[in-house]
Structure formats: C-alpha cells, structure tokens
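Posting for a labmate who doesn't have an account.
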Amino acid sequence: MIGRIIFLVALFLVAVNSLSGWASCFGDYRSLVGANAVASGIGSYISGEDFTYTTAICSTWQNFASGSCYSVKCTKGQNNLACKNAVTYVRSIDSLGNTCSGSGTGMHVFDLNDVPFNLLGSDGASCSGNFEVEYQPVDCKSAGLVSGGIKLGLAPNQVDPWCPAFTFSNVGDSGGLYSVSVSPDSGANWYSFKRNTGNGARWDCNGGAGKYLGKSLSFRLVSCSVNSLPSSCVSSGKTLTVNNFLPSGWCSNGGSPCNINSWQASNNFGTTSNALAEEILITTPNDSTNTNSEPSTISLALYSDGTDSDMVILSYVIFVVVVIILLAVVVYQARKIQVLRGERV
C-alpha cells in the first residue's frame, strides 16, 4: 500500500511540473560544431563539444536558456508521425526562428537534433514531421548531458585580452548561468561580466578592463534555478567558485585577438540540483565587486534567496497533503469493508 501511495504522489508531482508544446526536427546539429554557428555561441573551439543530444528552443527564451537541459516525451504525433514510448534528454544550443508564443501544445518549443527526434517519434522517414511533447527542465548531470568539470573557451577571433569575453559549456545543475564574475587576483577583487545579447553562453567583460592579461583568472558562477527555466533565469542560489581556473598565459600569443583555446575545470555544480547535502556549503556574497571574502578552494555555496528551497518546501507540503488524503481514503475503505463483513472496529 505504501508503495502505491508513493507511486501516485510521484505521478502527481510529475503532472504538476510538466510543460507542453510541440517539436520539429532540425537535422544534424553535429555538422555545425566546426562552423561555430549555433545561437548559444559554443562550438569546436571548446574541446570535446558534443551536439548529438541538442535542440533549438523558441527565440524568446533562447538567450538566457542557453545550455539548459530538458527531458522530452512525445505525446501525440501529427499527420503520419507516431509517438514512441520513450523519454530523451536534450540541451539547448540554438534558437528557433519563432518566438515563444501560444500556449500548451500550440507553442512551438523545440527544434530537435535528428537523433533525439527519431528516438521519440517516427513516420518512417528520417527527421520528418512534428509532434506534441511534454517536457521538463532537468539537472544536466543527472540527465547524462554533462560529464566532468565546467568548460571555458575563447571564441575565435573575438577575444580582446584587455577586456576578454569567455564562453561556458558543460555546465552542471540546470546548465544555464545566472551570473559570472572574474577575479584577476585570486579572489581579492571580483568583476561582474555581462551575458552577450547574441550568444547566451558567452559572457563579456563589464568591468576591470586592463587587469586580465598575463594574470591567472578565477571565476565565480551562479546557476539558473532549474524550476525557473525555460521562461526565465532566476538565481538558484548555488555558486561554483573556481580559483585560478585559467593560467597566467591564457592568452598565449598576448595579442588581440587571442589565440583560440579552451580549458576544463576539475569541478562543476552538484550532481543533482537538490543534492546540496552532499556538497560543501558556505555563505559568500552573490555577485558583489571588490570583496576579499572568497573561499580559497573550489566549492559550492548556498545562498538564502529561497528560489529553490521554496520549491522544495512546496513539494514536501504537497507530498504530505496527498499522503494524508490517501491514507484517510485507505482507512475509510478498510472500515467500510469491516462493517460489510459484520465485524466490529
């Protein structure tokens, strides 16, 4: 009985969190890695970039949703396309031509790479037709779309060493970044960077110009809350600090633009978006400038903005209420059966 109750509660919570829309098939995004042409701004200059399980997302959300990850399930095929009984996971790297307009299954949300598209539905042809979907933002590492530490790359022919721009990939947690700060002096001073308006995974110099060339650089990254995506990027309250991520010779040619290069840190955001108990939790300023309170090791910080904690509490409340209701029903039915059998309670 307890197993059935837990199963029913799980189904209820999934139903509450599911979003709906429809998806089309882009083709093979893997052919565009070398072209560095997707709207997020990532590409072959970041070592090991994989475009297999990827998607474009409607343009209104694309910029701040760059790198975010989703579970997707086909619920209804259009024309001759039939749904398969499968769920797959994709990462947002590109922009659809249409805005995020309409509602429910009337909204064109995804343009999937051919591999995940054909896992979900098929009309006998490759990458043809469209289907209605249910989707949810998910933790990228749990979905298997992120492995190892966070990656950083220098966009080809675009990086001024005096006021550099950096592009991030392989981001854990939701996959999306809420804010980026850079320190040229091991955390004594922090300078906020600004998301590029055209390439959502790229963050541009917004302060501290002239302080970066020839310096070992540290990064402080705040992820987007999984629950806020894809329609907005709200701070998760979780911060990954990577001290001395880039060596002092990061712009190896010392020129403008810098040579193309990429690096991978040993750490990332937590294994799952809610598994904070398994990480080192500390409290530091979220996005301030010129502070010397930064920890000296790579760590994950929990802030008290309540974004994710409120959702967790709400889920627990819903869980408890549903369990109480189901237990009441079970007790009532048991008493009813006893009365029918002529037994005394």
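Reply:
Got it, the structure tokens are right above this. The CA atoms of residues 59 and 99 lie 5 Å apart.
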